[in-house]
Design brief:
3 helices; about 180 residues; Rossmann fold; alpha/beta; globular; about 40% strand; binds 1-O-pyrophosphono-5-O-phosphono-alpha-D-ribofuranose
């Protein structure tokens, strides 16, 4: 298993997260957001961006998974739901990556039936090459090519999440 040099550096990430936070602060001016971090992957992005958003935030979390190592199972499991009542509230979901889109589409559909005033998606990374469902994040940090990336919350088999940058991951077939 190999992890290469940074694909997105700490500095690139820091500056883009600030830009996203400024846009969100402008768009939601005068409103309160229920900010939902989708765990585990979004934990680092979420912690960084909420510190920079300038409107009142009610923080919540949802724990979901669908991947085993580098492959999606196609089945989304919600391990822990949000605690807040989102009826008539402005909900903004924070996700580390949208790939096939299956996870976020499932979460979005699950939350929409609770009648929020609005529900938008902020994805740190957007990989469109394998999109299987119609899903367009409202805010995107970086659009990335078809590479398996780890770090800044993203994992391979639950490892590498703690890297402070994004790196390309290669499976070593000799292992
Ligand atoms: C990853 C990631 C997204 C999802 C994106 O989650 O955090 O939630 O996959 O992929 P998709 O668009 O193809 O559905 P994972 O299932 O690996 O769980 P994790 O957040 O605990 O890493």
């Amino acid at each position: 298993m190999l992890v290469g040099k940074p694909f997105l550096t700490v500095e690139q990430i820091r500056s883009r997260v600030k830009e996203l936070a400024d846009r969100i602060s402008m768009d939601y001016k005068g409103n309160e957001i229920i900010a939902v971090g989708i765990l585990k992957g979004a934990f680092m992005f979420f912690a960084d961006i909420v510190k920079l958003i300038q409107v009142p935030i009610n923080v919540d979390f949802l724990v979901a998974s669908s991947y085993i190592k580098t492959r999606t199972t196609g089945e989304v499991i919600i391990h822990a739901d949000i605690r807040e009542n989102i009826k008539d509230k402005h909900v903004l979901l924070f996700e580390d990556i949208v790939d096939t889109g299956v996870t976020l589409k499932y979460i979005k559909d699950t939350l929409l039936v609770r009648n929020p005033a609005s529900l938008k998606i902020c994805a740190f990374l957007d990989k469109k090459t394998h999109r299987q469902v119609e899903l367009e994040p409202d805010y995107v940090g970086f659009a990335i090519p078809d590479k398996y990336v780890v770090g800044y919350g993203l994992d391979y088999d639950n490892k590498y999440r703690n890297l402070p940058y994004i790196a390309v991951f290669k499976e070593d077939s000799s292992l």
